[in-house]
Design a protein that fits this description.
Number of helices: 8
CATH architecture of the largest domain: 3-Layer(aba) Sandwich
Order of helices and strands: EHEHEHEHEHEEEEHEHHEE
Strand order of the largest sheet: 2-1-3-4-5
Largest sheet: 5 strands, parallel
Number of strands: 12
Distance between the termini: 48 Å
Mean pLDDT: 80
CATH superfamily of the largest domain: Response regulator
Shape: elongated
Number of domains: 2
Helix content: 25-40%
Low-confidence stretches: 1-6, 131-142, 193-197
CATH topology of the largest domain: Rossmann fold
Radius of gyration: 18 Å
Strand content: 15-25%
Length: 236
């Protein structure tokens, strides 16, 4: 077995011991190191003591819920976060992504699906980290859209856009070819690599959040347009 992931460390935040141990066993079999935290109040200290490469974060935890934990994590870290939840209401999914989670997975799930999701997200983050940096990482469009890849920040018309990492990658993809229509599948290729476990609805949720933030910066312009049956394009 390849030791490609032997140094990658996954923090499992889950208060159901059987589920946490089952997921941990599958991740260990895939050569990941794991740590389990079962109380929401202990998560931040665990992360600060030893920063993991990815966090599997349950929403319903004793002491502190996953939404609150995710919000605080994003105040000091860009570590990938996958939310695990049995609450399938759409608002929970949207709020979770809005707070800065990179993805979500609904219970009940297959441990193999979790491992596939973890591998996909880490492959993507590794590619981003190893991409050669240019002398200037800031792209400026004539219309005033500014994208700073080094800082993972963007602004429009001088107004900062408070984007999650996934929203930033989505905007960067659309802005690379203004006016070009990107299918949902093509957008997924730039956000995630595992098409079996990420759906079109995930892209639609991110588009909705990204549109809202662009509208706040430029309420008189519809910058992202839906092309029925095809996908989305950015009009600058």
């Amino acid at each position: 077995m390849s030791d490609e992931h032997s140094t990658r460390r996954i923090l499992i935040v889950e208060d159901e011991p059987k589920l946490a141990n089952l997921v941990g066993d599958y991740l260990k079999a895939a050569s990941f190191e794991t740590q389990i935290v079962d109380d929401g109040r202990d998560v931040i200290d665990a992360v600060k003591a030893q920063m993991p490469d990815l966090i599997l974060l349950d929403l319903m935890l004793p002491g502190r819920d996953g939404f609150d934990i995710c919000r605080e994590l994003r105040s000091f870290s860009e570590v990938p976060i996958v939310m695990m939840t049995a609450r399938v209401e759409e608002i929970d999914r949207l709020v979770g992504l809005e707070l800065g989670a990179d993805d979500y997975i609904c219970k009940p799930f297959s441990p193999r699906e979790v491992v596939a999701r973890v591998k996909a997200i880490l492959r993507r983050t590794q590619r981003s980290a190893t991409s050669p940096a240019s002398e200037s990482t800031e792209a400026v469009a004539p219309t005033g859209l500014q994208i700073d890849e080094a800082r993972y920040t963007a602004s429009f018309g001088g107004k900062p856009l408070d984007l999650t990492p996934v929203e930033f990658r989505l905007l960067k993809t659309l802005a690379a070819a203004p006016g070009r229509v990107f299918s949902r599948d093509r957008l997924l290729d730039n956000l995630y690599t595992d098409h079996r476990v990420v759906t079109d609805r995930t892209v639609d949720s991110h588009i909705k959040n990204l549109r809202r933030k662009l509208d706040q910066a430029s309420p008189d312009q519809e910058l992202i347009r839906s092309i029925y049956g095809v996908g989305y394009k950015l009009e600058l």
